[in-house]
Specification:
The structure is a single chain. The chain is of the alpha/beta class and about 280 residues long. It is built from twelve helices and eight strands. The strands form two sheets. The protein has a six-stranded mixed sheet, sandwiched between helices. It has a two-stranded antiparallel sheet with strand order 2-3.
Length: about 280
């Protein structure tokens, strides 16, 4: 998992009021809602989930309010056997927290959890979970889980998919600033793009692991160039050797032809084609 997918860096990008427009752009892509309908309506809320059961409070990555919706965003870089139980527990508590405010069951906000998963699983690149019967009838309850599989989104990107949510997933896997800038593309305005890139540069400067990855990338690229150079030398040597051998065979073939040896015998002896022998 890359630097931007680390919890603290993910929160710096999405968990600050300073970058609320960038978060709104992402939610527009993830929820398939036009940006204009979301602009100015996204607010960050406290990340501590209040407990009414005596359990110690827990912290989520990003918690967002939209009119009629609460949205939780989690970065899950590593697979754990308990991960889905924990995430569902988070979502249930967020759902429950809407009850005291409304005093009416049918006024409870819709709750959506968006998970970025940095590990392979058996699902698709994007899976949407809702409560329903075995034959597909949805249960009338307002919550949904969206799981975005980052490795599979990377594969989709390399296969030519230009989907916005795929680009967002790849941004978290980008290995350098150039890749991020390319991926951002038309996801946002020039001003928002500059804001995002400036934030990434600050994160990059403060994270020694990023610098280590950059150095590793340089070593990798230099190694590839060296291998290409060596392969070129080897191919040149082999080509020169092959040409030298053929030149020698042509001399032998000419001598045999001058002595009156038939073409088929010369071809078998030298490995040269009849067409080449006829040109001698």
């Amino acid at each position: 998992m890359n630097i931007l997918a680390k919890d603290q860096n993910f929160k710096k990008l999405f968990g600050s009021d300073e970058h609320i427009n960038i978060l709104t752009r992402f939610l527009s892509s993830a929820l398939n809602i036009p940006y204009k309908k979301l602009k100015g309506k996204v607010t960050l809320v406290k990340k501590e989930l209040d407990e009414k059961t005596g359990v110690v409070s827990q912290t989520v990555d990003i918690l967002v309010n939209l009119p009629g919706r609460k949205i939780q965003i989690e970065m899950n870089p590593v697979a754990h056997s308990w991960l889905h139980i924990r995430n569902f527990t988070y979502l249930s508590r967020i759902f429950q927290s809407g009850l005291p405010n409304s005093k009416v069951y049918d006024k409870v906000d819709e709750c959506i959890q968006i998970n970025f998963n940095g590990f392979e699983d058996d699902g698709e690149y994007i899976d949407v979970y809702e409560m329903m019967t075995s034959y597909g009838k949805k249960y009338k309850i307002n919550f949904k889980i969206i799981e975005i599989n980052i490795p599979k989104c990377v594969e989709k990107w390399y296969n030519g998919t230009d989907e916005a949510i795929v680009k967002w997933a790849n941004i978290f896997m980008a290995e350098n600033l150039e890749e991020i800038e390319e991926l951002v593309g038309d996801l946002m305005t020039k001003e928002e793009k500059k804001e995002l890139m400036d934030t990434v540069k600050i994160i990059k400067k403060g994270d020694p692991l990023w610098e280590a990855m950059e150095e590793d990338r340089i070593y990798y690229e230099n190694t590839v160039r060296h291998e290409i150079y060596q392969d070129g030398l080897k191919e040149g040597r082999e080509s020169g050797l092959k040409e030298g051998q053929e030149s020698e065979q042509l001399k032998i073939a000419k001598n045999l032809k001058d002595l009156g040896v038939d073409m088929n015998t010369i071809s078998k002896s030298t490995g040269l084609s009849i067409e080449k022998l006829e040109k001698l």
